[in-house]
Amino acid sequence: MPSPALTPNTTAGRAAEQIFSVHHLRLREGDDVSLSIELSDDEQQRIAAVTARTGQPAAEFVHEAIVSHLDEVDDAAWAEESAAEWVGSEQTTRPLGELRRELGL
Fold first, then answer.
1. What is the three-class DSSP state of 12?
2. Treating both helix axes as pointing N-terminal to C-terminal, what angle do 58-89 and 41-54 enclose, rounded to 10 degrees?
3. For residue 17, what pLDDT is reported?
4. Reading across the β-sheet that carries 6-11, which strands appear in turn?
5. What is the 3-state secondary structure (H, E, C) of 18-86?
6. Does the global pTM surpass 0.85?
7. Is the pLDDT of residue 33 over 70?
8. Which of 11, 33, 93, 99 has the fewest CB atoms nearer than 10 Å to its CB?
9. Residues 105, 99: Cα–Cα separation, whole Å
């Protein structure tokens, strides 16, 4: 799949902001869709500064940022579910020293 293209489009009524469309973003297998996000001038400048410094295309940078954030959200949800499962299990904990003695460590 080709790297998503990042193209600015001015937004009617929003002189200080632009919408960047990311093309070829696959949300479901077999479906290519466009995604538009609103970025402030500051956000645009920050992305431009990072991509200029790294030489990474803006579309690739934005794609990686989205994937990274999705991974963080998934990890947080897993941690919350695991903690709730542990609390609901009524299991007890032991001090590490006790566990080491039991295991002969």
1. coil
2. 100
3. 42
4. 6-11, 14-28, 31-40
5. EEEEEEEEEEECCEEEEEEEEEEHHHHHHHHHHHHHHCCCHHHHHHHHHHHHHHHHHHHHHHHHHHHHH
6. no
7. no
8. 93
9. 9
Nearest alpha-carbon partner for 11 in 35, 34, 39, 33: 39
Distance separating alpha carbons of residues 65 and 4, to the nearest angstrom: 13
- pLDDT higher than threshold 50 for residue 72: yes
How large is the greatest C-alpha to C-alpha distance in the chain, in angstroms? Answer: 70
Q: How far is CA 100 from the centre of its chain?
A: 38
* Beta bridge partner(s), residue 11: 14
Residues in the chain: 105
Note whether 25 and 32 are within 8 A (CB).
yes
Tokens, residue 43 = 């956000």
Q: Which residue has the higher pLDDT, 78 or 59?
A: 78
